[in-house]
Amino acid sequence: MALLELMMCCKGLESEKATERKKEVDRFRRLIRQEETVKELDYSSGNKNCKQSKQLTWDAVFRFLQKFLQKETEALQSGKTTVSAITKANRQKKKQEISSLVKYFIRCANKRGPKLKCAELLSHIVDVLENPFNCSAYGEDYSSILLKDVLSIRKYWCDINQQQWHLLLNLYCGLFSGSSVSVNRVLISRIIHTLVQGCCLQTDGLTDKLFSFFSKALSNARSEKQHAVLEHLVSSLNVFLSSVAMNCRRRACSLGEELLPSLLHVWNQMRPSPVLKEEMVDLFNLQLRLHHPEGAKTMETGAHAEDWAKWQTLLYGLYDTLVTEISQIGSRGKYATGSRQIAVKENLIELTASICNQLFSQESRILEVSQAPYRGSVLDSPSSSSSKRRRVEIGWEVLREHLQLHQSDFDMIPWLQITAVLLSRYPSILPVQELVPLLSLLCQLLGEQQHRGERGPYVLRCLREVARCQALHPKLAEPELGRLWSRACALALRGVSSPQLEIPSMELLCCMTQGALVPVDRELWKLFSGSACKPSWASVLVLCQAMSKCLLPKALVSSPVGVIGREPALREAVSSWLLMREQNEESEDSSRPHLILLRDFPQNLVSRIIVSLTLKDSRAGMVFLMGSLDLNSFIPRVRKAVNVKKNTSDIECLYLQFTFDEAPSRPPSRTGCGVGVSKDPQFTLLSEIKARVEQSLMSVADHLLNCYSPESPATPPECLIRCVCLLTGVLAGFVCAGIISEDDACYSGLFQKAKSVAQELSEYISTAKNRLSEDVVLNSLKCVMMICLEAVDCLEKPDKMSSVSRKIFLRSLPSRMLSELTETCKALLLSSSKKDSLSMLVEEDQMEEEWDTSRTQVQQQAHIDLFDDGEAIPSTSDGTATPKKESSELPNAPGASSALSEIQLSMPDVVLLVVLEFLSLCCSSQLSPGLSFKPSEVRCKLLKLLDQMEYSRPLHLQMYLTLLKNLPAEDTLLSSEDFDAILRPLPDVCSLYRQDQAVCAAMLKDLLPAIQNLGRVDSVSGEESDMKHVKGTLLKVVSGFCILSRTGKSTACVRAALVHCLVALLEVDPCCKWAVLHLRDEELLVCNVLPDSLADPHHHVRMLTALAVERLFLQHRKDGLEKKCMLPLKHQQTSFENIYLKAQEGMKVQRGNPSDETFNRQATLLKSLSMVMCCSPVCEKQALFALFQSYKENGIEEHLLKKVLCSVSCALGYRSSQAFISSHLYYLVAEWLYQREKDRNYTLDSFPYTLLSHSTLEDFYRASYQVLLPHLVFLNDFEQVRSIATCLSSDWRVLLADCFPKIVVNILPYFAPSGQDVQVSQQKEKAHKVYNLLKDSNCLGKQQIDSLICSNLAEIVVELLMTLYEGGGGVEQRGDLNMFVGELDPAPNPPFFSSYVIQATLDYISKCHSANKSLVTILSKTPISIQKILLAVCQKGAETTNAYERHRILMMYHLFVGLLLREYSTAG
Questions:
Q1: Rounded to 5 degrees, what angle do the CA atoms 1012, 803, 665 make?
Q2: What local confidence, expressed as pLDDT, does residue 927 receive?
Q3: 1084 pairs with which residues across the strands?
Q4: How far apart are CA 312 and CA 309, in angstroms?
Q5: 689, 678, 791, 797: which is closest to 737 by C-alpha?
Q6: DSSP output for 987-1036
Q7: In this structure, are residues 784 and 767 in contact, taking their beta carbons and an 8 Å threshold?
Q8: Staple partner for 58: which of 115, 324, 1100, 1237, CB 3.0–4.6 Å?
């Protein structure tokens, strides 16, 4: 009945009478709010049968509403143009009511989830905005609808296809650039920002359009009066450039060079808002990274600029602007009232440091900076010479002037920040001659004003970075430096007692100790044996570094003469300080746990120190327990800051890979220096110290158990888990040091105490489970679970002690604790579902209230939107818009939050995910014996949670991805049932989110552990049949994503994740026995699918694939130690053909930006070939020739090829790229000349000899004629031989005589073989023909040939031996050395022959000399001939760096020595 009444109402909206339509509007508003109507519309809209029966749905109602809007608009258009003010106001009110009705209907329809079709909704919005009258009437309201009711809904966000994104972007870019003022420019710019985000996240296209738009929109930024517009535009530009930086570096650089002058003008002349300045700083930082990845300064090292002169000018102007800005910040701070933050924001400091890195040189410079860059077009005008100019000084001397004592904190601290960041990011920039002046100044600042002002911590950080810089010059021994560092050390020791300076002082001490800048003396040890400081993460790092550098002294001071008593032991003092035993015994308040449990310390670092104290050689023990871990990995970092910079640093690294430039990096720092410790060391235990330490640890645990109270804020539950980690960590250290076994550790008193503490922890979790509605409990539970997570996650620190500690920690956990945590997950999941239902009811109530209040407001203020929720932009007196600063209006606010975003999660949701991840990792420990819980049971409980999940909910999706990622862990062998349970929902989840690119990429990434686990199951259990359906499910998902990629329905981030999945499949099934993808009507092996990505439209995907081609040639095995085994020969050859074919195919695809595309695709081709050369000996020559061929066919720049060859030759162990090419020169020349049959342009003159560092053709001929002429003679190309001789101004016969041994080796072996093989007969015929030409009197002649053979017999034998290769020829022609070779032994340079052919050739030569004498007899007639042959072979073996070549040379030696021994035995 409700739908019937609504149908009649909708038909009434189509009435031709305005009064009838007005009545029906009120009726429509009433009906659309009724609960019965809403339920029936929801049902009919979601039921396919109802849709087919033409029953009323939300979409059908929306179509009636569109017709209503059309009729009302026609009525408005038909009115008179010249009317009174009252009539105008009434018309305006009418327009407002119409658009408000549409907006209210859309929100009513979608408040329980999107019910209206995205395509129809967008089509209507676009139609309205494209019509000039409609746009002026409803443009602002419809723009608001688009922003808040379409683009803010994730489903609509994902449903919009690339064509629709393009249409919307064109529409709003046109509105922004046009002269129409019907829609507020701030709102337009905000929508453009959201559309740019959508285009970048959901599509790969629209690049050309956006480059063009930003070029036009921001070139005239100085004429824009509203800063809010610029905020949104610059933020949009940052989003866009970050997205296309990988694919369009050159074009992005060009756009930056074009826009920076206008933006600098805005900064300097228009007093931009703080938000706009933030966005501009981000843009400038991004441009610095685009132009100078990793601080590269020149093109040769990876830097790039479209116009270097212009870019340098912009850098000077930007430096001047930043210096002025920093100066102004200091001036404002000095005269501000009240407290004020002195430090400048980090992004501004990083930008200034990056520019200083580019402009600083060995000496200070004075530059005249023109003001022209700030005015954009003036830069290129003829009158630019008359513009104002300023003198700007740049250099280290200028920097030191900013750090003088007389400067105030406001003036000095920003420059201390700049200095620290500059030295931290670019340590090699500090000249050696600047070390002493800078260090002296910093020590002076620290000494005279350490306790005054706020500069102390910043000075200490600068000193820390200077210490790291000096580590680059370990041989630098200057007395003044030593004196200054000693002073800095003394000042740092003094600063430890200051709360403000403690951490930076400790960091400085750690760096000085690590770099051996100061000796580890008694003053330093005193810190850890008294009350000068308390244990903290910083002090523990210094202690660890000191113990890694030197042995602990027995005592700090000796007992005075005449005093009876034991000398105080430093080990006991340090352990007492660390565990703060004295403090708790003497303290009146015994209700607080030990300090070691109240503070956060790096995982297992304190345990490593405690165990090292019990070993006689504490230094070796510390180094051994640290293993390969870098001490810097224990420094706490802010997770957010790391994540923000990761993307840009990845881009910079890839830039340097694209250009084949090594990234500048500081030498790896080591915890210990010069201490060699075996893998299984024998440590001497100090039993007395061990007993005291264990007693102290027991005391710490007992005191915690005695004073712990869940209700007391003095004993937070985090102390319990820290105590368990401490005790189990110490036991793990003893196990790793060989003091006790792992089983003995689990029967020790410390372990039992750890179990008691863990039991108390499980009691807390049981209590917390019933108080999950309290924020305090949730925060506390989250902290506890984060510590637990760190204790069981070995990925971050994959060393032996962390692994053992994880096992012992898990064995200490009671089964009740995991049961309680599982119940906690269920409770949190149930609570989340209830909150979702409650929030839906609240939202409906708010809609009702909104409707009731809006009816009153429309009568009072006709110009206000009836159903607006805050997006209206009030105007100031001068007419400019001043938007409200809502969170959704910030420039960096997302258009629609991803289902993976933390914004979607409440605090209980976050706790649920952390607990779930911890339980998942506990389940992965089934290979660890002695657990009190059964991992399989816990896993079963977690898998049952899948039945309660609705994957359309963000929390449930994230829960599933957590399980998918963590359950198939590294040391777990899942059963087929478990795998089936994990993967069963995957196809449905993929189908649900197939249009959400971020979720698709995350799913593929989290699928990797499952793929890897399948490989381990196959290798261990061999459950091939049980896992068949599991593999089928997994391959079905991967196949689906491959189909989406091939049809252009996935973005680059998804395709990159897909490449990782394909590589993972090749890791577990390198020969593709089951890794077969079903793509539409064809089945393809994964090894044949992966090379297709070399022709992908996006550069990042292509380069990831190029870096992964190694997997097509090598199999990685993990049998204790990781090994790399080569795949079968045919597999490798097929893979190389596919790689080269696809890479060349990618070269032919050129899109809108030829400059970037050409360079990027060349980089893909070069990287692919270089990877093949480095990993496949059997394809090395082919890949090298393909590189030479690409030089000619693809026009690749020579300097780029030289970089590639240099990196490859270095990786393969050659002394230079020239040596690498020369080792394959005969093959390269032979293949080059062979191409003449297809292309006559492949001449010897066109050979890329410049890659051999030959500047002229004559140099090439002179250096290589020994290689060139023998092959040319065999090809019967005497014309080219004469040409070479003419070029070298030599007689061609003389050159032939000089090359005679190599020429003979190309001919004689074909005389020896017997048989009727067609190919052998052809070769023999060709050899006879060439030999007859050589015998001709016009050439060498028979007499000279005989003479040359006799005089060069030893050389001929050597050259013949060098052709040995048992892999060549048929089976019947293989010799006795066949047992020493394998299928994968690479072929040498041609010509090559088997030992059978070589022996036959040697017999042939001996018969030509004498029918009755052997070759050895003939050779022995000439003094030292045999010795010369053996020496030549040995020298060749000593020179080569190739293992296969060395093996081949050993076989040559074996072959010739065998001939000698047979001769001698016969003679004997």
A1: 80
A2: 62
A3: 1077
A4: 5
A5: 678
A6: HHHHHHTTT-HHHHHHHHHHTHHHHHHHHHHHHHT--TTTTHHHHHHHHH
A7: no
A8: 115
State both tokens at 1318: 């067609």
The span from the CA of 621 to the CA of 378, in Å, is: 68
Residue 1221, pLDDT score: 94
pLDDT along the chain (1468 residues), means of 10: 83 85 86 87 78 77 90 83 78 86 90 89 93 89 92 90 92 86 87 93 85 91 89 95 91 95 93 93 95 91 92 93 88 55 84 93 63 43 49 83 85 92 92 91 82 80 93 81 92 88 92 90 85 87 91 68 53 86 48 87 92 92 86 63 56 84 43 47 87 93 89 88 95 93 92 95 92 91 93 76 91 93 91 64 47 41 35 36 36 64 89 94 76 89 91 93 88 84 92 92 94 76 70 92 91 95 93 91 92 92 93 78 81 93 82 77 92 93 94 88 92 91 93 89 91 92 92 90 92 90 88 68 84 85 86 89 77 63 85 86 80 77 85 90 88 87 70
Residues paired with 365 in a beta bridge: 394
State the DSSP code for 686: -
Dihedral sign computed on CA atoms, order 182, 183, 185, 191: negative
Among all chains, which residue has been given the structure tokens 């994730």?
A: 154
- Burial (0-12, 13-18, 19+ Cβ within 10 Å), 1065: buried
Q: Where are the alpha helices (DSSP H) in 270-395?
A: 274-291, 308-334, 346-359
**1316-1321: which pairs have CB atoms within 8 A and are 24 or more residues apart?**
1317/1370
Which amino acid makes up residue 577?
Answer: W
Name the one residue in this structure whose structure tokens are 């805050």: 870
The neighbouring-strand residues paired with 1082 are 1079
pLDDT, tens digit (0-9, with 9 covering 90-100), for 181-237: 678 899 999 999 999 999 999 988 778 889 999 999 998 888 888 899 999 999 999
Neighbours of 312 (CB within 10 A): 14
- Please say whether the dihedral angle defined by the alpha carbons of residues 544, 549, 555 and 561, taken in this order, is positive or negative: negative
- Going from the C-alpha of 958 to that of each of 835, 916, 1006, 1037, the distances in angstroms are 17, 10, 11, 18
Owner of token pair 């408040």: 111
Partnered with residue 393 across adjacent β-strands are: 366
Tell me how crowded residue 1239 is: count the other CB atoms within 10 A of its CB.
10
Spatial distance between the Cα atoms of 1061 and 1004, rounded to a whole number of angstroms: 7
* Pair of tokens at residue 443: 């020590």
d(CA 1045, CA 1033): 19
CA dihedral 540, 546, 551, 554 (to 10 degrees): -60
In DSSP notation, 543-592 reads HHHHHHHSPPPS-SSPPPTT--SPPPPHHHHHHHHHHTHHHHHH-S--SS
* In contact, 188 and 176? CB cutoff 8 Å: yes
Q: For tokens 């053979």, what's the residue? A: 1349
d(Cα 396, Cα 383) in Å, to the nearest integer? 34
∠ at Cα 1047 (1041, 1050), nearest 5°? 50
Model pLDDT, residue 165: 92
| R_g (Cα) of the chain, nearest Å | 39
Q: Is the pTM of this model over 0.85?
A: yes
Residues in the chain: 1468
Query: Which DSSP category does 344 fall into?
Result: P
Single-letter code of the amino acid located at 222: R
What residue type is 1066 in one-letter code? L
Half-sphere exposure of 992 (CA within 13 A, CB side): 15
Pairing of strands 1114-1119, 1082-1085: unpaired
Residue 1080 DSSP one-character state: T
Distance CA(210)–CA(248), nearest Å, equals 12
Distances (CA, A) of 1426 to 976, 1361, 1453: 67, 13, 12
Distance between first and last Cα of the chain:
120
| Residue 1319 near residue 1368 (C-beta atoms within 8 A) | no
